[in-house]
Hints:
By secondary structure, the chain is mainly α.
Amino acid sequence: MARKSLESFPRVVRYSAKELSMRPLSENDKRLLRRLAKMTDEDVDLSDIPPLDYPMGSGEVGKFYRPIKKQISIRVDADVLSWLRGKHSKYQTYINEVLRREMMAGLK
């Protein structure tokens, strides 16, 4: 079967990520960036954005967010460590959850 002609559509130029980060800005790009820099928040047209069908901030925190883990060394009282190990097989994960809860409560 012959391939369908797409002549009515302009040919899209595709760049690799490396090319995009390495190529210098064209005059048209510079002109567009200058124009955008002069715009205020009130100048931005938001009329074509569809309304949200869920309240802002109702998403599940941490569902898709995968923070970078850092290995550290801390000193914990022996009785606290014993309690954590007895209560949770993954006690280090539990420590992280407790610290994250405290951090999030402090941000409110």
